[in-house]
Amino acid sequence: MSTIRWIEAQPRSARWHSESGLPLPRRVVVADDRMSAAVAYRLACEGTALLWRGDFQNARQLLRAMDRRVGRAAPGPAGTPAETFRLYRRFRAHRARVLGKLLVLLEREHVLALRRAPDVRPACGEAYGPSDGDMAVALTELLGVISARQWREKGVYVPALGARVHPHYGVFAPTRGEYVDLVARAPLPRGGGVRTAFDLGTGTGVLAALLARRGAGQVVATDVSARARECARDNVRRLGLGRVVRVAGPGLYPEGRADLVVCNPPWIPARPASDLDLGVYDARGGMLQGFLDGLGGRLEPGGEGWLVLSDLAERLGLRSRDELLNAIDTAGLRVVDRLDTRPRHARVRDTDDPLHAVRAAEVTSLWRLAVA
Prior knowledge:
alpha/beta; Rossmann fold; 15 strands
């Protein structure tokens, strides 16, 4: 068990926890409202963690001030999109390390004993489970946990479903609706007579619910993440689809065959920094390859596999279109059709984003695949 230690009138310690994989702080000092942003930033850059014991709202202001200082080193567009992407990821990792040095202590039952602090116990209970004594976390992580509970309570409205989906902490939220719309409008195989469908990497369960709403007799949704499986089950219950959708895992494919297999893998073939990145990064395209390699043996005659994939990796120079088509061909599959759409999220319009040109040209596609 990782433990941080510090002096506060006497030696103290607490369990260290980081969902984003931040390393155990080796040196910890106590900080409060008297510490300036300049000093906090310098100590954090040197690798010293700051255990905050002052006012909670002042801690948030300090974090914003530190972030402004980190932002001065943000990279602009480089020579190629791939170089820009690598520099941008490196900067984001540096930013996470520096800002992650500002810590707070969650005491027993996830109590945050700071002045003007909100009651974080419900949010921490949902994210971390039962309390196991004092635990130190980065303030950035705690703010993410609080935000995640707000998203979970409010939900994300999905027009294609005509309902809200409620993401849990650590589960990728369906805020980019264009990929859901593709699954909503693609023609169903077998003339619409889909008896069984698989949704691989279900996340919140949004696509599994959509397939059920489109008339699939039985939908089996899988995910490698226990959090995602719990989230999907929660949403299935909320939507009243418990008799149609079954959540399984952690394997990619469930047992049996299906008339339709849908997979929306992470779009970027790069190594995730932590489990929180698994919705975005697919190391070496492993999930994509697993879907393609297993599809032929899991389809019923006349069935189809729907691959929902952005071409962002191609535009970043991380995977070519030929590599994708060769992988499809090598798996013994053929392309029946392809439906395309443009993203509508806010980052497409963010001209300050060093990857703006790539994001503005991005196309998301639904590839209809069948056995060759």
